[in-house]
Amino acid sequence: VTTTEGPGELRWNRVLRRWVVVAPARAARPLDQRAPSPDDDPGSLEGCPFCPGNEDELPAILMETPSETPPGWAFRAVPNRFAAFRDAAGTEPAVPWVRPARGAQEVLIDSPTHLGDLCSMEPNALVRAVEGWAARYAAMCERPGLTRVLLFRNRGPMAGNSLRHPHAQLIGLELDPPGMRARDKAFRELRRESGGACPLCEPEGTEPDFQDRLVRRTPHLSAWVPWAAEAPFEMWIAPRRHTPDFRTSMEEGLGGDLAHLLGWITRRYRDAAGDPDYNLLLHSPGPRDPDPENLHWWIRLRPRVGHFAGLELLSGVVVNPSSPEADAKLLREGDRNSGSPRA
Ligand SMILES: [Zn+2]
Ligand SMILES: [Zn+2]
């Protein structure tokens, strides 16, 4: 029996072979997409639990990155008050197709500024946010019992964002979703078929005419529109050197590079691509994967324009109404309004 208290309940759909989280507690979460009015204090919006001064509404502060400027912090990690996945003791269910939604859930507050966004944050603030994501990601990977740690960011209501204040999310799952397991298996098979070549550090060997869709290369990273992009301006970002796990990446000086690249891409989204809502999705091996060496972490930026309709829901085949090559060209070359992309 599910309640509005405690964790959600995982139910296995035996026909569709998918897990569903039944989580009535999620219905109680605050929804706030309104823009502040001139009467609001721009530094702290009344009723926003992530704004400075509203700490009473936070269950705890798990981590804070200090800042020299008011309000004295740049990044915070807090527990998710409306978590679907939680630490939960209890008896094992009698049947395998239902279980408590055990896990952990955090909110990563990217900035103290309510109207902040990746495309408008100061470069140093963006670096601290990305380093904060990486630190909390690594810390959650250490928690016993978790099979998957998911880091993502929902930007805008079309992407499922419920609170306007800039934030990312972290969810640790005890369960290994079949879709993620199948994706890792396919990645390893692709490498075997390609004689060991990695499709993410050597995308030239996997994708036809890769240079046409390459948007930007930085010292550590490549960013491109994939050959089979599912949405206009979809982008993949991956380390240029073979790097299996996101956890170890920041040690290699990659955090600053990633922050600058995300700032650049999201400004291109804003200035050249119609400012779409999007999801930022980190793909990285499970923390207890026995063979991470054959995987390679990457970030997918998935704009949310248009809806999944009958074709997509029935077949899983997605229609992209845009040309990946034309999208890459536009992102790369700028337009008359915004000038050339900034270095
Ligand atoms: Zn706020
Ligand atoms: Zn690789």
What labels would you give this structure?
343 residues; alpha+beta; 10-stranded antiparallel sheet; 3-stranded antiparallel sheet; 5 helices; disordered C terminus; binds zinc ion
Structure in a nutshell:
The protein is an alpha+beta fold and 343 residues long. Helices cover 20% and strands 21% of the residues.
Model description:
Helix 1 (123-141) packs across helix 3. This protein starts with 8 loop residues before the first strand and ends in a 10-residue tail after the last helix. The strands form two sheets. The chain has a ten-stranded antiparallel β-sheet with strand order 3-4-6-8-7-12-13-11-10-9. The chain is built from five helices and 13 strands. A hairpin with a 6-residue loop joins strand 3 and strand 4 (73-79). The longest helix is centred in the middle third of the chain and has 19 residues, at 123-141. The chain is α+β, with helices and mostly antiparallel strands and 343 residues long. Residues 198, 200-201, 242, 296 line the site of one zinc ion.
What is the number of E strands?
13
Quote the average pLDDT.
Answer: 89
Helix content: 10-25%
Report low-confidence residues grouped into runs of 5 or more.
Answer: 336-343
Major β-sheet strand ordering: 3-4-6-8-7-12-13-11-10-9
Number of helices: 5
**Share of residues in strands:** 15-25%
Shape from CA axes? globular
Which small molecules are bound? zinc ion
| Assembly form of the protein | single chain
- Listing every helix as H and every strand as E from the N terminus to the C terminus, the arrangement reads EEEEEEHEEHEEEHEEHH
What is the CA-atom radius of gyration, in angstroms?
20 Å
- Gap between N and C termini, in Å? 55 Å
Largest sheet: 10 strands, antiparallel
